[in-house]
Amino acid sequence: MAKVIIFGIGQIAEIVHFYLTNDSEHEVVAFTVDKEFLEQDSFHNLPVVAYEELTEKYPPREYKMFIPISYKKVNKLRAEKFADAKEKGYTCVSYVSSKATYYNTPIGENCFIFENNVIQPFTKIGDNCILWSGNHIGHHTTIENHCFLASHVVVSGSVTVGEYSFIGVNATIRDNVKVGKENVIGASSLILIDTEDRAVYSPKETEKARVPSNRLRGI
């Protein structure tokens, strides 16, 4: 059991608080934000402290951290805060939902893996990764550091997802594909071949029909 400080007081931080409180052995004891954004002194009945003062009030020898920042700046912001927390001496906890399916997969620090993820054998997940709910991670796949997978992504077998990549909802990655570093793969993308570093895939939005719903027959 660890006493944990969560970075942030936004929606993702609130979600992390819920999961750690209800589905882990850890105890959330405080929240922290950068001093310039410190506008309240409590959140969920726990103290909110300035990040610049964290080591004095919650020393790393006694407390651990969780840094659930989203995919802003292609995950770079979360990576920067993770590196800074490590430099200050903190260990970051990881959370894997009790409702996820995985088989002793090596998982790095500061990972957040939601319910209904299926993570097959012989996979590896690096540091500072977020896997939202309902993804399939195929066998012998490696997800490198600082990645974010939104919900219902299918990553087939023997895939490598390069560091700092974002994969949107309902995207599909074919087996034996290497996704380059810092990719942004939009919702419902279909990736069949290796991608270059910093590639962006953005499928077209479904077109609106010309007929309004009140004129449709059979509905």
Query: Which class best fits the helix and strand makeup?
Result: alpha/beta
Query: What is the residue-mean pLDDT, rounded to a whole number?
Result: 97
Order of helices and strands: EHEEEHEHEEEEEEEEEEEEEEEEE
Proper CATH architecture of the largest domain: 3 Solenoid
Shape: globular
CATH class of the largest domain equals: Mainly Beta
Estimated share of beta-strand residues: 25-35%
- The N- to C-terminal Cα distance equals 54 Å
Number of strands: 22
Placed side by side, the strands forming the largest sheet appear as 6-8-11-14-17-20-22
Domain module count: 2
CATH homologous superfamily assignment of the largest domain:
Hexapeptide repeat proteins
What's the CATH topology label of the largest domain?
A: UDP N-Acetylglucosamine Acyltransferase, domain 1
Largest sheet descriptor: 7 strands, parallel
Helix proportion range: 10-25%
Report low-confidence residues grouped into runs of 5 or more: none
